[in-house]
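Thread: quick sanity check before group meeting

JM: Hey all, I'm pulling together slides for Thursday and realized we never actually wrote out the predicted structure for the chain we discussed last week. Dropping the sequence here so it's in one place. If anyone has concerns about the input, flag it before I start.
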Amino acid sequence: MEYLLDHEIEEKEKFSEKNLILLGTSLDTGKTVYMKHNPKSERTIISGATGRGKTNIAKLIISQKIKFFAERYRKKFLILDYKGIDWRTIQKPQENIKALHPNLLPFAIKNVKVYTPAYDETIAFPGDKLFSFCPTDFDYEDWLQGGKFMAIGADELENMRETSPEIFESPTRLIETIGESAPNYLESMKRGGSDFINSNTKRVLIRTLRILRKKRILVSEKSSLRANYTILDDLKGMTIPVLQMGETGGKYVQFYSGKILRQVFNARHREIKDKKHKLGYINVVIEEAPVIFHKGVDIVDNPAAYSIARIFKRGRTFGISIDLITQTIEELHAVSWKNADKFIISAGCSDDDKKILRGLGVDECYLERLNELRFEPEYGRYEFMYIGNDKKGIVFNAALTPVGTTEEV
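JM (edit): ok, ran it. Output follows.
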C-alpha cells in the first residue's frame, strides 16, 4: 500500500523538511509515530512471519521515501523482489481502502519499470521488460563478480581480452582457455605474460561460465534481449527498476543479483571518486532477502552476498541505503544485523531473533513487549515495534489497511 500525508501544504513542507516518515499510531500514547529518514544512507531490516504485514509496512515506508524525498535529494530506488509479484503493486493504489490512518491518503508511485529475467524465456506480466547477459556484453570486470579471489585475476583477464578477444565469444571457449591458462606466473612469462589466472579466481570464473553455458538463450551473440538491459540508465533517469527474480532462480538469481548490485556499487564508487553525481543517493530494497543473503552464504565466493555485505559495511560512504525484508532476522547473514541502523519487527518474533536483538543491546523490557504485538486485520490491528540506533523500541499500530493475498492481488 502507498499513502500520502493528508496535511495542508505548509504542514507537508514542514514534515518533509524534518525528513520524517510516518509509521502509524503509538500503542502507548495514541500519537503519530514517525521514523527519522537519512536520505544519504540507511540500513534497515524489516522482519515478520508470513502474513504478518512486513511487505506492506515496507511499502508504506519505501513509498514515502519515493514520494517525499526522491526528487528533493535526487535519490534513486532499485527493488529486487524474490517473491515474484508483491512489489509490482507499488505503482498502483490499493482499491477499497478502509480504516486509514487519519493523516494518510492513498497515492500511486510513478516511473516504475518491471524487469523479468530472460532465464524465464517469457514475459511474466504485461509491460515487463526482459533482460539478459552474454559474454560479449562484458568487459573483464563483469566476470570478476567480487571477493578477494576474483580481484586477483583482473589484470590477467584484461590482457587476455585484449590479446585474444575471440576467446570471449562463448562460455565454452572461455572455460577451456581459463582452464588451460599458465599454472604460475613464471610459466605465464614464458608464454608472453598474459595468461596466468590465480587458481581461486579460475575456479570461480569457470563456475560462473558454466551457469551461463546451460542457458543458450543467455549467451547468444545475436540475442535481441540484450538491448533491454538498461537498469543503470533507468536509475540515472529517476525510473524505478523492479526486478521480479522469483525465488526459484537458484544460481541464476545469484548471478544476476551479483552483477546488478556490483554495478550499482561500483558506479556510485566511481562517481564519488570523479566527483560526479548522475546516480547520487541510491536505496536498494530486497524482498525475501535470505534468498541471496542467508546466514550460511559464503560472502567471499558469492557475488550477490559479497555486494550486499559491501553495502552494509561501506554503503554509508557511497550514499547507498539498503532495506532487507525477511521472515526472521536470524536467517540473515550476521553482517546485516550487526550493521543495521533500524529494525521494524512484526508480531510473532522468534526467540532466536530476540537473542540477536539482546546481543545488540536492546533492553529486555522491549523484548518482552514483542510478545504483546498483534496482527489482527479484522480488528484493524497491524502492530509492529520500531528499534532505532538508540536500541529503544517503540510499539505502534501501522497505518495499513486489509489487503488480499499475493495471489489475489
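AS: nice. The longest strand covers residues 20-26. The first helix runs from residue 9 to 17.
JM: adding both to the slides.
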